[in-house]
Amino acid sequence: MEDHAPQTQTPALTVGGFLEKNRSFVRLDPGSDPVLLTRRITKKRLQKLGMALAGFTEYIQDGRIYVFGNTEDSYCKSRPTDQLRDVITKLAPRLNTALMVTQGLALPPVLAEFARTQGLPVLLTELDSSTAIYRFTEFLEIELSPRMILHGLLMDVYGLGVLIGGESGIGKSECALELILRGHRLVADDVVDLRNVGGKHLIGESPPPVQNLLELRGIGILNVREMFGISAVSRMKEVVFYIELERWHPQKEYDRLGFSWQRREIFGVELPSMSIPVAPGRNLSVLVEVACRVFLMRSSGQHPTGDLYRTLMDPNSSSAGTEEVAP
Fold first, then answer.
1. How far is residue 166's CA from residue 98's CA, in Å, rounded to a whole number?
2. Which of 130, 141, 191, 194 is the most exposed place for a label (fewest CB within 10 A)?
3. 116 is an active site residue
4. Is 77 an active-site residue?
5. Where do the domains of the chain lie, and which CATH numbers do they carry?
6. How many Å apart are CA 266 and CA 168, to the nearest integer?
7. Residue 71 pLDDT exceeds 60
8. pLDDT cut 90: percent of the chain above it
9. Is 172 a catalytic residue?
10. Tens of pLDDT, residues 111-162
11. Of 39, 64, 172, 184, which residue is the catalytic one?
12. Under 8 Å CB-to-CB from 213, ≥6 apart: which residues?
C-alpha cells in the first residue's frame, strides 16, 4: 500500500448514475431517450411537483428530481387540458433534470408530451411518493456530499468502521488479511473514498475499480470476495474510529495506561483515535481487535482497566459502579 496526500473531489452524479445505483427500485420510461441520462443531479432532496403544477413555478430549481404521485395525478385530472398545458409550459426551462413517477402511475398526456419535447428523462418506480422521497433523498445525501480520496485501510471490525493509517510498508494490508481470517470485513484497501455527510459523519467505501481487492507485497492482488466469500467484504461503512500504525521508536514515550483518548480530524470530522507502535513480533490484527474492544467499552461508559481506573481517579470510591469515559 502506498500513502500519498489526500485528494478532494467535487461530487457529481448523472441521471444515468442514479439509475444504475438504484436499478432495484427505478427504471427508465420506455419513451425517454437514453441520451438524456447525462443530465446532472446537483440537489440532494427530491421534491413533489404539486406546487409547481398549482402555479408556483418559481420554486422549480435546476438539478433536482421532481416527483409525480397520486396528489399530482388527481390535480391534473381535475383541470381542463388547456389550463394544464399553460401551467406545464411555464415549467420550462428550469424543470430540466428528471421527473420521477411513483406507484406505477401513467403521466397525463400533456405532461408526457412536455417531457418528450423538453428532453426530460422520466423515471418510473413502484414505490409510493413518501417512501421514494425518503429513500432517494438519503441516497443523494451521501452521493452528493463532499468527497475525499484517502490512502489507507478501512475495515469493519466488530461492526465498527475503523480507518487504519500509517506509512507505506508498515503492514496495513497484512493486518487486513489477518483481520479477514479472524472474521472481520474489508471495506477498502489502499484507496478509501470518504464522504463528509452533513459535516458530522464520514462514510467510506472503495472506488468501484478496486472494490474487494487487497494488495499483498510478494503475493500480488487478491479478490477477497472470491477467495473468502461475501461475508468477508462490506460495500460501505461509517468511519467512527481511527488507528495510526507507526514504527516503534525506543526514544519515544508511548501511552501505557490508556486513561485518555487522542482525537484526530479526518476530512472535517473529529474522530477518537489511537496510535499503535509497530515492531517485529507484534500481532497487529490482535492489537487492532483489542483497540476496538477498548473503544466499545469506553463508548458504553466502562473502562478496560476496571477497578484500577476508578481507584486512581478517586481512591475513596467504592469498586462498584462505572465511570463515564466515553470517547
1. 44
2. 130
3. no
4. no
5. 13-143 (3.40.1390.20), 147-313 (3.40.50.300)
6. 19
7. yes
8. 61
9. yes
10. 999 999 888 999 999 999 999 999 999 999 999 999 999 999 999 999 999 9
11. 172
12. 189, 206, 221, 222, 223, 224
